[in-house]
Amino acid sequence: MTKHPDLIILEQKPFNAAPPLNLLRQAFITPESGFFVRNHGSIPEVDLVNYRLSVTGNVQQSLNFSLDELRAAFPKRTITATLHCAGNRRDELMKVAPIPDEEAWGASAISNAVWGGVWLTEVLHKAGVEPDAQHVAFSGLDDVEKEGRKFHFGGSIPIAKALNSEVLLAYEMNGEPLTLMHGFPLRVVVPGYIGARSVKWLSKITLQSAPSDNYFQTQAYKLFPPDVQAETADWEQAPMLEELFVNAVICQPADKAILSTNLILVEGYAIAGGNRHIERVELSLDLGTTWVQVQLLEKPQPGTWQFWQHQLELQSDTTELIVRAWDSQGNTQPQNLEQVWNFKGYMNNAWHRVRINKSQ
Ligand SMILES: Nc1nc2c(c(=O)[nH]1)N[C@H]1C(S)=C(S)[C@@H](COP(=O)(O)O)O[C@H]1N2
Ligand SMILES: [Mo]
Q1: Fewest Cβ atoms closer than 10 Å to its Cβ: which of 110, 161, 224, 355?
Q2: Nearest ligand to the C-alpha of residue 347?
Q3: CA nearest ligand 1 atom 21, residue
Q4: CA-angle at 95, arms to 92 and 101, nearest 5°
Q5: 39 CB within 6 A, ligand 1
Q6: Is 200's C-beta closer than 6 angstroms to any atom of ligand 1?
Q7: What is the pTM of this model?
Q8: Average pLDDT of 140-147?
Q9: Is the beta carbon of 182 within 6 A of some atom in ligand 1?
Q10: Distance from Cα 166 to the centre of ligand 2, integer Å
Q11: 72 burial class (0-12, 13-18, 19+ CB within 10 angstroms)?
Q12: Per-residue buried b or exposed e for 16-52, using 16+ beta carbons within 10 Å of the residue's own CB
């Protein structure tokens, strides 16, 4: 499969790209061609003949599989899960204050697929989880260069998450073998967590007492408050990102659209984090004073985005549409970008706003 020609390429090396919002909103299951791509390093060439997955660390018995052996050893499981980059919507934060050296993602660093593979928990049970295994660390085959060092991309999740029948070691995406771009031959899919934990080109699973010591666990993907700058950051102390925050985005009309009719269909997506689901999604036409509930198009479920739509008639004084969502635990989104701004530009879930103009 090749990528859709309309994809917005943020960077060629490493390759980073995302679809325009109207393309993203066309299909609940994102086709591979339109699925966003987030790479921190090289795209490795993996030779299936030599490919091995190892499972080591605090286990009763270390394991080692070829892809065929893995497929034969465990039943095939499928799950519909949305990957959502922690850097989604960073471009809005960049307008509040500069965020140097990070990708300027719009609101489409997110996509949804049906993944086929084996449950991580079934693999871990076969290896035998020792009591001091508190975290499951993943390592990929790509090479990343940071601060003069070259290393593989990696990260970890807590053992409790890993033991749920939801974390997948995926060899298929939308019924086809994974493409190289998305982690061939095997990747992790961690529903409800930031995309960075869904490690592509997976080669090593290590059970350990502490989180991964990989740069992308200990430095990148940490959340700082708005008043902390890069120079003053205490990396040790800041929390590692794992569960996503509740978020909602208007995909159509586009920001700054010029509309020729008053009757419009507003369309978008919403997503909750962890094991929460979307409870409701609301639109405001009066800068957040009053809200109307929009129609959700699928049955809400954790780990998967929700499409929504709302038909409305614009009033003469409507200048902005705002959306916000609520999750099943009563969490909602902060009002302003300033409240969520952080110098790495992660987890922007402020109310999403679209400015509109009328052509008459
Ligand atoms: N090995 C490896 N895995 C990786 C990454 C990477 O750079 N290398 N990027 C991560 C990030 S930050 C995200 S958001 C998702 C994106 O998955 P995709 O490229 O399939 O959309 O992959 C994650 N897994
Ligand atoms: Mo990401």
Answers
A1: 355
A2: 2
A3: 37
A4: 90
A5: yes
A6: yes
A7: 0.97
A8: 95
A9: yes
A10: 19
A11: exposed
A12: bbbbbbebbbeeeebbbebbbbbbbbbbbebeeeebe
